[in-house]
Amino acid sequence: MSFLAKTSNIMDRDLYSSTFMTNYIEDDLNPARLAMINYFKWEKVATLFYNEDIFVSQMNEFHKLLDDNNITLVTSGVITDVQEVDVVLKRLKQYGARIIIGAFRSTKAPNIFCEIYKQRMFGNKYVWILTDSLYEGWIGRLDEGDATCSIENIRTAADGHFTLGQKQLRTDEVVTISGRTAQEYNTWMKNISSQYDSSTMLLSKYSPWAYDAAWALAVALNKSMLYLGSNELENFSYNRSDIYDAIKRGMGEVFFQGVSGPVSFRNGRRVGPAFIQINNGDNRVDVAMYEPLNDTIGWWRSPSSLFKGGVVPRDSFHYITRRFKQSFAGISMVALLITTGVVVALGFLWFNIYYRNNRNIKMSSPRINNTIIFGGLLIYLAVIFMSMDYAGILSELNRHICMLNVWIISVGFTLGFGALFSKTFRVHVLFIQGTVRKQAISDAHLFGLLGGLVLLDILFLAFWTFFHPLRLIQKNVTIELDNSDEILVETFHVCYNEYQTYWLAAQYISKGALLALGTFLAWETRHIKVPSLNDSKYIGFCVYNIVIVCALCVPVTFVLPPEKPTAKFVFTSVVCVFTTTLVLCILFIPKVKLRKSTDAIRFNPNLTKSTNSYTIKNGHSNEHTKTTNISTVEEFKSDFQEKCYEKSSFTDQISNTSSKVKLITVDSERSVLNDGELNGEESLQKDVNCTSI
Questions:
Q1: What is the Cα 275 distance to its own chain's centre?
Q2: pLDDT of 323-351, one tens digit each?
Q3: What pTM was estimated for this model as a whole?
Q4: What are the transmembrane regions (predicted)?
Q5: CA distances to 90, 651, 655, 656, 660 from 685, in Å
Q6: Signed CA dihedral, 301, 302, 304, 308: sign only
Q7: pLDDT tens digits along 588-621
Q8: CA–CA gap between residue 330 and residue 41 (Å, rounded)
Q9: From CA 412, how far away is CA 375, in angstroms rounded?
Q10: Across residues 484-501, what is the average pLDDT?
Q11: By three-state DSSP, how is residue 475 classified?
Q12: Cβ pair 22, 260 in contact under 8 A
């Protein structure tokens, strides 16, 4: 006989076939748990318990009980370290657990309920059914700092949880087998204990179980005599199996009213009532009693009144799946920005076409400028596709939208900045080392250079698309609606490939190299003071803004969680449109202002008095070369400045000389005049562009 045995192995009847207990163990609460679940018609539950033998054994038995009664165990959480309880609770929440059966000690409860508070797993949507291993008033004994939450937070999370337990001393007025009521027994025992020194001996709260253990053994011995002769017990011997069997049979038939409650045994374990208690703060109140003999619950209060709002929570959420709610304000703002950017770009395009014969615009290479604008329009097109994907328009493009945007943005960037830097490359070649070189670079050369850059882009993107293309995958975000049994599941799509980081890094490096090259060319040509010809200053502004914006914004796009598609869409779109429009304005607003300029070309004062070759033809069949300093043509330059590029004046000066003048042109629409003899008559017939130097 035992009145305190609680270890898990005591239940092994193969080892302890003749052991009987008047105390209860945690496993004895499983029938009460099951009865409560059946009463409220819950069909799905979860369990949460600490990794100790006393809790593991009862939960293993409870899981079998659930399976035998066709109740679904949605998930089971085992706590091995209270510092990692957040992971366990997140798993319970992920599986939609609402009715949670728990088993852990009061010492672990503060950290567990602190995390319950953080995860918002309390209130009228959740039911926590624990055991009286959480002693009454445990919250009131906490000190601030026992957990990472305040005591008030823990009190809030624990408010309204249920506990199941048994009584050491019954509370009714039933007269027990001893002839005393439970209260009379308690008074009697206190009088006895008062005779002893309280510093060395105290009355145990488990004394009713010990008292009933003696009565249980007495009743069992009496019943064993029915199976033996009247005097056989007096001949007791441990070697007599018939006496052993008779006493064991008698123990199985024990039933009486003890001071701890009704006493009977099943497989050596105490069969007795379990009490259902509601906990509000530090107050624990009995609200029902489970009677194991007839498997019923007797409620002393209305069951529905035990729950907040007077409604019994459901055992599972009702999930509503829909596409995430798009932000009309976000779409409107992006649409307005795109419209503004496209209008600005088309305005600059019209300007280039309309004023293409203007001498200042012609010197800035209108066709190259148009290519820059076309690159900007491609960026706007990519943002339009992003907006359509965000708004759910043209869903048939969804599986292609990821790589399509990558292609458009990459080619658009290369066209825009590649064309811009190619113009600077031409200026760099013509004026390298401060000396005018005798060579001509037409727009065809520049478009060939640009085509090479685009070809490299296409090859890179083709390999990316073939080997590791970005694919659209669906992600979900769950939103719990307040005061509702519904959970909203919002779906959205993200572009993903496990190797995308490597491809993006390669792309950023290539685009960065292009910007670095353009910055180098702009720096090298910074002293060329021909506003309509040289964009080095504006290139510096463009690259500076691009680098700053990318340095700030690219990390943000990776930090923004995919669960916030609206924020990511708006941020990415605004950055793309803003930087593209800013670059176009930096490049073309000065050209708009320059269209009416009549200032002569201002030669770089730093140009050295280097020599240039030209040939003299003296009427003979043979030619000889004469070298002269650029200063010998100062009269042409002076008259050129005074006449403001008037063709007639310029050609008149040339016609009055017998020289063959080598011309270096930066005209985007004229062929270069190399070693062509310009006599007076021919010069009047040729349409020599006054932008040629």
A1: 45
A2: 888 888 999 999 999 999 999 999 999 99
A3: 0.56
A4: 328-351, 372-394, 406-425, 446-467, 502-523, 538-560, 566-589
A5: 86, 10, 11, 15, 16
A6: negative
A7: 888 888 776 655 444 444 443 333 333 333 434 3
A8: 46
A9: 4
A10: 84
A11: strand
A12: yes
